[in-house]
Amino acid sequence: MGLFRVRMEVASIERPLAKLSLRIPPLAASLALVCMSVGAVVLIGLTTLALVPLLLGLGLLAAWLVAALLLGWAGLEGLAALERWIENDPRFQR
């Protein structure tokens, strides 16, 4: 089987390029082009629709991370303010 494949490849290489030209009727060629372009539009649309949830999820994750960082920072600032208030309030002095 391997020798047969090699012989076919050698035979196809040795053919002149003029004989390799493909003759497609204009109607068939135009239908093929229309089908390929419609398929490309459908694939682009489906890929875009598939990316929307992914991008929304990444945006939501980024928003949660920013919110967690801001909430942690605000919590630490609040605790520091409470500590200063307790240290300076005479009711808590001994």
Can you count the beta strands? 0
Q: Strand content of the residues, in percent?
A: under 5%
Segments where pLDDT lies below 50 for 5+ residues?
none
Average the pLDDT over all residues and give the rounded result.
84
Q: In angstroms, what separates the terminal alpha carbons? A: 99 Å
Total number of helices: 2
Write structural notes for this entry:
With 94 residues, the chain is mainly α. It has helices spanning 2-14, 26-88. The chain is built from two helices and no strands. The longest helix has 63 residues, at 26-88. It starts with a helix and ends in a 6-residue tail after the last helix. 81% of the residues lie in helices and 0% in strands.
Key features?
single chain; 94 residues; mainly alpha; 2 helices; 0% strand
Layout: helices, strands, pairs:
Elements: H1 2-14, H2 26-88
Q: TL;DR?
A:
81% of the residues lie in helices and 0% in strands. The protein has 2 helices and no strands.
